[in-house]
Task: inverse folding
C-alpha cells in the first residue's frame, strides 16, 4: 500500500507526535552495563558469534550439555541491541511460522514439528524458572483474529487451521463474533482462533539480558562491541578475526541473523526486512475496561499484511506489523529503523480497531530488521569441514524458535543424531533469493500482490506461481 498523508486523520498523527523514537523495552535505567571489548587473542572449544537469543541459547545449552566446555560469545554491539531486544515479545511455540505454513512446506513432518515446538516452549518455561530469569513471562496464548474488512475466504481458511490444530492435539477454541467480543472488544472483529497454550508473552529485552546473566553464571565469557570480521580454517580449528584480536576455536556457531553473514554462501538465503511498531502510554482502568482483554492474550490479524499486538505488564498496548519493508541491496542500518509513514499508518489502523481509545497517545515507536527466508522459517547448515554451523531465517517468530535453532545447531556441529536433525526442516534449505535487481523487484511485486489479496481474497498469477515452486514473502 502506498502511503498517502491525507489518508490519515490528524488526530492519529497527533497521537504519535510526542513518541520517543526508541524501543520501549530498551528505554530505562534497568539496562545492564556493557561487557568489555575483546582486545587480546583468545582460544576456546566453542566460539559463538552473535549475542541475540540464538547465540545465548547456543552458549547456555553447550554448557548444560558439557559444563567443562570452554565457550566464548562475541557480540558486535550490545547484547539485546538488535532484534532480540526490540521485538514484540511473542514467544510462539510454532517452529514453522504457523501451522499452515508448516503444512505447506513440511507436510510429512508437520505432526512431529508441532510436538517439537510445544516441547521447546515447555523447556524454555522450565529454564526460565530454573535460572530465575524475570521477564514478565505470561503463557496466555494468542488469538488470530478475523476482521470485517477481510475477505470471506480468510475466515474459512482460519477455521480449517482450527480443525487441523484440534486434530493434532492443540488446546484451541473457535470464537464466534460474540465470544470474540467478550475476549477483546473491537467493532471490527467477526471471529477468532484462540491457541490457549501455544504462545507466551515476555519482555524481550529482560529475557535477553536474563539469558546473558545465565550464560555468564555458567561460565561463558562474553565480549560486547566485538565484531567478527572474518572466519577461516586454522589447522584443525577455526580462526575468528575481530578488530582487536583473534579467537582460535575448535568449533564456531554463527548466530548473526539479519546482519551480513560471515559466510558468503548464506547471503542468498536471507533477506533483511524492516518491521515497525509502537507502544501506547499505560491505559487507565476505564480505557482497559472498554476493551476487556481480561485474559491478556496476544493478538494478530488473519491477513497477509497483519498487525500483532499485546498488553504489557503495566497495561500499555504494543501495536506493530503490517508494513514489511525491504530496502535495495538488503541494506541494514540504524537510519532505516525510523519510518514515520509506517508509524502514521499503524496509528490510523490502531484507532480503526479500537475507536473507544481515541485520545490515547503513543509513548515509543521504533523499527528493526528481521532475517527472512523464502519459506519463512529458520534453516541450518555447516561449513569449513563441519567445524562451523549456522542457524538463521526465523522471519519474525524467533523468540521461542531460537532455542530450538540453537539446540539443533549444536547437534549438527557435534554430529549428534536427534529427532530434530532427521526432519525435513533441518535437512533441507529454503529456495535462495535471486540477485539484485530481481530480488528487489520480486519482493515489491509480492508485497503488492499480497495487499491485493487482502482486499479481494484472490491470489493472482504471481502468487500462484510462487506457491507452485515453494517461494513467497510474508509480512
Result:
Amino acid at each position: 500500500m502506498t502511503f498517502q498523508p491525507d489518508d490519515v486523520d490528524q488526530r492519529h498523527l497527533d497521537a504519535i507526535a510526542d513518541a520517543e523514537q526508541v524501543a520501549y523495552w530498551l528505554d530505562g535505567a534497568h539496562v545492564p552495563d556493557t561487557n568489555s571489548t575483546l582486545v587480546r587473542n583468545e582460544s576456546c572449544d566453542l566460539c559463538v558469534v552473535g549475542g541475540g537469543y540464538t547465540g545465548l541459547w547456543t552458549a547456555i545449552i553447550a554448557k548444560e550439555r558439557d559444563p567443562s566446555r570452554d565457550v566464548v560469545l562475541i557480540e558486535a554491539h550490545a547484547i539485546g541491541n538488535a532484534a532480540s531486544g526490540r521485538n514484540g515479545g511473542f514467544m510462539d511455540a510454532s517452529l514453522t511460522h504457523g501451522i499452515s505454513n508448516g503444512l505447506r512446506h513440511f507436510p510429512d513432518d508437520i505432526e512431529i514439528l508441532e510436538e517439537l515446538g510445544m516441547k521447546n516452549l515447555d523447556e524454555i518455561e522450565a529454564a526460565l524458572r530454573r535460572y530465575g530469569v524475570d521477564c514478565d513471562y505470561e503463557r496466555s496464548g494468542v488469538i488470530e483474529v478475523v476482521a470485517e474488512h477481510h475477505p470471506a475466504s480468510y475466515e474459512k481458511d482460519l477455521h480449517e487451521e482450527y480443525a487441523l490444530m484440534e486434530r493434532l492435539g492443540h488446546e484451541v477454541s473457535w470464537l464466534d463474533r460474540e465470544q470474540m467480543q467478550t475476549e477483546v472488544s473491537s467493532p471490527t472483529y467477526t471471529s477468532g482462533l484462540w491457541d490457549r497454550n501455544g504462545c507466551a508473552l515476555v519482555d524481550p529485552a529482560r529475557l535477553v539480558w536474563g539469558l546473558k546473566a545465565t550464560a555468564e553464571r555458567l561460565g561463558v565469557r562474553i565480549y560486547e562491541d566485538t565484531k567478527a570480521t572474518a572466519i577461516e580454517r586454522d589447522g584443525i580449528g577455526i580462526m575468528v578475526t575481530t578488530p582487536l584480536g583473534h579467537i582460535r576455536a575448535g568449533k564456531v556457531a554463527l548466530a548473526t541473523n539479519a546482519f551480513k553473514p560471515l559466510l558468503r554462501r548464506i547471503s542468498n538465503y536471507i533477506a533483511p526486512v524492516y518491521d515497525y511498531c509502537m507502544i501506547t502510554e499505560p491505559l487507565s482502568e476505564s480505557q482497559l475496561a472498554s476493551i476487556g482483554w481480561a485474559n491478556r492474550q496476544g493478538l494478530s490479524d488473519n491477513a497477509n499484511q497483519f498487525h500483532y499486538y499485546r498488553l504489557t505488564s503495566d497495561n500499555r498496548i504494543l501495536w506493530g506489523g503490517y508494513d514489511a519493508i525491504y530496502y535495495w541491496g538488503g541494506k541494514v542500518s540504524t537510519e532505516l529503523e525510523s519510518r514515520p509513514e509506517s508509524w502514521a499508518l499503524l496509528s490510523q489502523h490502531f484507532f480503526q480497531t479500537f475507536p473507544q481509545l481515541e485520545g490515547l497517545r503513543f509513548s515509543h515507536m521504533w523499527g528493526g530488521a528481521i532475517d527472512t527466508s523464502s519459506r519463512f522459517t529458520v534453516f541450518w547448515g555447516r561449513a569449513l569441514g563441519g567445524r562451523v554451523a549456522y542457524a538463521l531465517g526465523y522471519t519474525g517468530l524467533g523468540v521461542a524458535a531460537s532455542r530450538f535453532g540453537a539446540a539443533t545447531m549444536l547437534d549438527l556441529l557435534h554430529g549428534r543424531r536427534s529427532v530434530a536433525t532427521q526432519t525435513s526442516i533441518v535437512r533441507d534449505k529454503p529456495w535462495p533469493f535471486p540477485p539484485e535487481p530481481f530480488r528487489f523487484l520480486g519482493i515489491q511485486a509480492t508485497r503488492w500482490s499480497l495487499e491485493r489479496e487482502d482486499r479481494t481474497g484472490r491470489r493472482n498469477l504471481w502468487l500462484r506461481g510462487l506457491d507452485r515452486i515453494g517461494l513467497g514473502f510474508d509480512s
Q: What stands out?
A: The longest strand covers residues 362-372.
